[in-house]
Design a protein that fits this description.
Shape: elongated
Distance between the termini: 83 Å
Order of helices and strands: HHEEEEEEEHEEEEEEHEE
Helix content: 10-25%
Number of helices: 4
Radius of gyration: 24 Å
Structural class: alpha+beta
Strand content: over 45%
Length: 270
């Protein structure tokens, strides 16, 4: 018994000394310097920790070739599989958390994402998008990436306490508030099928389904969405005027088709 205790104590001391002296920062920087990131980008971090659940980087930042920061994470955790993919990657960023699972099966790569409470305004700024949207986003998605073929997959996005400021002429000063919104979608052959979109808001309640033909330039993607919109007391007059002439149900619901493109949508009769 005494010998077992001595061995256990010696092992514990060895593990502590190894954890304190292991050059985790240096090895992490060595590995990141060889990571095949696009366009000359690179990753920096404040501190690295080797833990039983993976390598944890504090203050990890993806940078442009000139050193400018693109995205910064409070923490980044990489958990490789010793037998090969799938790998797990998690991060605390944009006010929320992201968890990803990366797998490879011969010529097919799979990516599974879940995210919770991401700040939409900060997310769009990181993506260098000019859209004026705020609120919180959660959801999940699974994608299949096949060599020589377009991506396919499905997912769900949930927004809460969101505000969208359209850049659409008469609506430029009429923000849309969504207390809760849910989008369920499928992607195949460059067509994004909207299985269901439901929005409950101050200005309107809205339900939509249809598809979007995804173009190489995203803003040029063609819309074909069938929409049912019920005005709420908070809808401003300029929004109501856009609905004039559309079929109207007994409860005030308007049915129409949202056509055109993402950067130039237009309302048409169903």
């Amino acid at each position: 018994m005494r010998r077992a205790l001595v061995v256990a104590a010696a092992t514990a001391v060895f593990v502590v000394v190894l954890a304190l002296s292991f050059p985790t920062d240096e090895l992490a920087r060595w590995g990141l310097a060889r990571a095949p990131l696009p366009d000359g980008r690179f990753v920096t971090f404040e501190r690295a920790h080797l833990r039983p659940w993976g390598l944890v980087l504090d203050g990890a930042t993806l940078r442009q070739p000139d050193g400018g920061a693109l995205y910064t994470a409070d923490w980044l955790r990489l958990r490789p599989s010793w037998s090969g993919p799938p790998w797990r990657l998690a991060a605390g960023l944009l006010g929320g958390t992201v968890d990803a699972r990366l797998g490879t099966d011969r010529a097919v790569q799979t990516v599974e994402f879940t995210w919770t409470d991401l700040d939409l305004e900060r997310l769009l700024a990181a993506l260098q998008r000019g859209d004026r949207v705020s609120g919180r986003a959660s959801g999940s998605t699974g994608l299949r990436l096949t060599a020589g073929d377009s991506p396919s997959g499905s997912g769900e996005i949930v927004l809460r306490d969101a505000v969208w400021q359209p850049s659409l002429g008469a609506l430029a000063d009429a923000p849309v508030h969504a207390e809760h919104a849910t989008l369920r979608w499928d992607l195949a052959d460059r067509r994004l099928s909207v299985a269901a979109f439901d929005l409950q808001g101050r200005e309107m309640n809205l339900a939509a389904s249809g598809h979007i033909e995804v173009a190489a330039a995203l803003d040029a993607s063609a819309l074909d969405l069938h929409v049912s919109l019920t005005p709420q007391p908070g809808m401003p007059e300029q929004m109501r005027q856009l609905l004039d002439g559309l079929p109207r149900g007994a409860d005030g619901t308007r049915d129409f088709v949202l056509a055109g493109t993402l950067d130039a949508p237009r309302i048409a009769r169903p």
